[in-house]
Each structure stands twice: as structure tokens, then as C-alpha cells.
Design brief:
Length: 339
């Protein structure tokens, strides 16, 4: 089944490093054929979700291998379309739940997700279509599944009892990814559920109304200030002490100044102030000349004419906005500014 990926990202700032990226989409699995090719596994014909947005990082080992260092303006929001017409509808990660711990600072450290108490063995489902990036036992998270979705969001399902998917497997919204458990450092059976963008976590309740069991809006708006780009400790779940979790060794390709997620984080007790999850971005009327730009990610079959028509603009305007010529060959994953 060929998946058509049609990702539209509204980025409220122009100076993003991927905006002018012209490089090809590389497939790290190219030439790496498995002996048992399943049609559910990534092959060369499948695009890794948001591969260029993540600066060509796709790893099956670590929840957050590094901060990507993508520069957003101080006052800008990121707007992400959650479900498009060709996607399967959003699915709640689990059926019956009681919130036992919300996202944010709490005694013992920053809680990077939301805890939903469940019966052992309760089904855990993927929220959106995507590809499994991680499916493994992961330090204090226990058995963990991480799915990257086509809009660049990642969802994390931790403390599972069983895992039903494997890395690089394409999954659909609503698909069973595992069952609820208390693996890892969990005080009881619950799902520790995280939402992340560019590896940085944000409050799942910004996106999901856990009372009604639906998305709050089909357009998720995240303020830059709500993505803890450099400061967030990665203490998962029911961490009771500031004892650091086992530190993953950074992959050899990440030799830079960015510490791996769980390394050297400041003790969480130094900042007992609750994080204001819905704090409005101050002075957000500044720099409005930059807001409202719209970025289109090139997918298979795209043409300049088609993109122009889709966004109600003209090829000429696209050429000027992107400093390209009519002869320019569009490449999969290329970011085209359309407004
Ligand atoms: Zn938790």
C-alpha cells in the first residue's frame, strides 16, 4: 500500500534552516533490505515522516537524541495540521482512563507527559497515522513505543506490558501498539503518554481533550515557549528521585554540544514553579510581518502548478518566494514557501 504523505506545516517564521533546504530525501534503509520484507516495513518507496524536518535524523534507539537547534523567533507560534482528509481519523490512545498525573513540574521532577491509569493489558492505540520510530525497553520508561507522524509530531506510549509493533513499521491511527502495564519505573499500571515536536515535549492537553476524548482542534498551535528546548529534564513517569536515568550513549553522528536527553539535566527540584501550560506568548503582536507564512512539503507527484493551485497562488509567486526557476526540479521533502 503506497502511502501518500501530504504534510503541510505552517511556520510562523521564515528563518527556519530547513526552509531553503534543497537536499534530497535520503533513505537510511536504502540497500538495507531485510530478509523478510513485510509490506508494513519502510522500504525505499516510503518516506520517513518529516525526515528533513528532523534534519535527516531517524533513529530507533533514543527518545531524544539531541536538541535539533532549530531556531524559532521568540514570539512565534508553530501551527500543525493534525489530521488531513486522506489520513485516518484521530484515535484516543486508550479507552477507559483516569488522569493520575498531568504534564508539568511536580514533586520529583518535570513530568514530560500525562499519566492515564488503566487496567493491566488494556489496549493502547496509536493516535495518528505514522511510522514506529522506537519500540523497545527504554530506561525508566519501560517498554516504550514512539511513533513519528507525517506532520512531524511524535507520540510516546510508555510503561507498556506488551509491545505489538516493531521499529520502522507503518501504523495507522487506532492501530494497537501495545497493552498497558507498569514496566520501567512505574508505581502502578498506567500509560505514560507524551506528545513531542522536534523531540521537545509539550503538554498533551494542548492537543487532546481527555474529557471528551477528541482533539481540541485540528490545528495545533504550540508557542515556542511551550517547547522546553534546552531546559527540560527528561524524567519520565513516576520518577520519585532526581537519580539520573541510565544515560544513552549518543550516536556517533551527533558529536556536538547537545547533550543526550537524559544526561546532565539540572535537578528538577531547582524549579518548583508549575509550568504555566497556557501562558500566552508575551508581545505576540510583534514581528507579525513574519507570521502567516505557509510552508508546503513536496510529496510524490507534486508540481509547481499543482502546489500553486492548491494554495490559491501562482507559479510566478512561488518562484519568487523560493528563489527558484520554473525548471527547478522539485524534490521529495523539499520545503516550498507558498505564502
Ligand atoms: Zn508519566
Amino acid at each position: 500500500m503506497k502511502k501518500i504523505i501530504n504534510l503541510i506545516l505552517f511556520i510562523a517564521i521564515l528563518s527556519t534552516p530547513w526552509l531553503h533546504a534543497q537536499d534530497d530525501v535520503l533513505n537510511p534503509y536504502e540497500g538495507n533490505a531485510t530478509s523478510d520484507p513485510s509490506e508494513n516495513l519502510i522500504t525505499e518507496s516510503y518516506q520517513i515522516p518529516s525526515y528533513n524536518l528532523y534534519l535527516q535524523d531517524w533513529n530507533n534507539e533514543y527518545l531524544k537524541i539531541k536538541s535539533l537547534g532549530i531556531s524559532f523567533g521568540n514570539n512565534d507560534d508553530i501551527k500543525i495540521i493534525l489530521v488531513e482528509s486522506h489520513n485516518n481519523a484521530f484515535a484516543m490512545p486508550c479507552d477507559l482512563y483516569r488522569i493520575t498525573s498531568k504534564y508539568g513540574n511536580r514533586k520529583g521532577g518535570m513530568h514530560t507527559g500525562i499519566d492515564l491509569a488503566l487496567a493491566k493489558g488494556a489496549p493502547i492505540r496509536c493516535c495518528f497515522d505514522g511510522v514506529v520510530r522506537m519500540a523497545k525497553e527504554y530506561s525508566s520508561y519501560g517498554k516504550t513505543v514512539v511513533v513519528r507522524h507525517y506532520n512531524g509530531l511524535e507520540t510516546v506510549y510508555a510503561h507498556l506490558d506488551s509491545i505489538y509493533v516493531q521499529p520502522n513499521e507503518m501504523v495507522r491511527a487506532g492501530q494497537l501498539v501495545g497493552t498497558a502495564g507498569n514496566s520501567g519505573r512505574a508505581s502502578g499500571v498506567h500509560l505514560h503518554f507524551e506528545t513531542r515536536f522536534l523531540y521537545e515535549h509539550f503538554d498533551p492537553e494542548k492537543m487532546i481533550d481527555f474529557g471528551s476524548g477528541d482533539l481540541i482542534s485540528n490545528i495545533l498551535t504550540i508557542a515556542k515557549s511551550e517547547l522546553d528546548f534546552d531546559t527540560a529534564p527528561e524524567a519520565p513517569a513516576t520518577a520519585q528521585t532526581p537519580t539520573p536515568t541510565p544515560t544513552p550513549t549518543p550516536a556517533p553522528t551527533t558529536a556536538n554540544n547537545n547533550a543526550p536527553a537524559t544526561a546532565n539535566n539540572a535537578p528538577a527540584t531547582t524549579n518548583p514553579t508549575p509550568k504555566p501550560a497556557t501562558q500566552p506568548a508575551p508581545n505576540n503582536t510583534a514581528n507579525n510581518n513574519n507570521s502567516g507564512s505557509v510552508i508546503h512539503t513536496v510529496v510524490s507527484g507534486d508540481t509547481l502548478y499543482g502546489i500553486a493551485r492548491k494554495y490559491g497562488t501562482t507559479v510566478d509567486k512561488l518562484l519568487k518566494l523560493n528563489n527558484i526557476t520554473e525548471d527547478s526540479k522539485l524534490q521529495l521533502g523539499q520545503k516550498i514557501r507558498v505564502k
